[in-house]
Write a structure and sequence with these properties.
The protein is α/β, with parallel strands linked by helices. It has a domain of 97 residues. Helix content is 42%, strand content 23%. The protein has 6 helices and 5 strands. The protein has a 5-stranded parallel β-sheet, with helices on both faces. Helix 1 links the parallel strand 1 and strand 2. Helix 4 runs parallel beside helix 6. The longest helix is centred in the middle third of the chain and has 20 residues. It starts with a strand and ends in a 5-residue tail after the last strand. About 17% of the residues have low confidence.
Length: 160
Amino acid sequence: MGYQKILVTLDGSKLAELALQHTLEVAAPGAQIHLLSVMAEDRVSEIAALASAMGQSVAITNEQWPPLRPTTDPRLIHAREDYLRQVSEWLEQVGMEVTVEVRPGNVVDTIVSVARDGFDVIIMATHGRTGLSRVALGSVAEGVLHRSPCPVLIIPAARS
């Protein structure tokens, strides 16, 4: 059976891309997959993204550093769109219909707003933040889960 209209949230991290494999497992043949990336407009989110990237790997490339200027910068939005298009090519090769979207704003509010467009499910990975990062940011996955108009499939962060 499977889901026909799927919203997948990606933030550019390898951890968030864990959602992609699970998307293929629950998607109906020829499913419509909408890749959404929300670029947070606040400094707390940027700092938490940096902390998360540092926790994932000792060797951090320039692409993994969060932006240190407003995320509405057209160059940053264009770079994120390019990233989503690259991901979409992989999904299209396996027969999925894919659309991409980058939006600035509050991450939870934006994901929930987009989900109201009639999606069957939201698929997202959780970064598994703890401590001060979680206190400062809260959990995006938890916020989406509690406010979503549709089921949410949360892929847990890999634990070492």
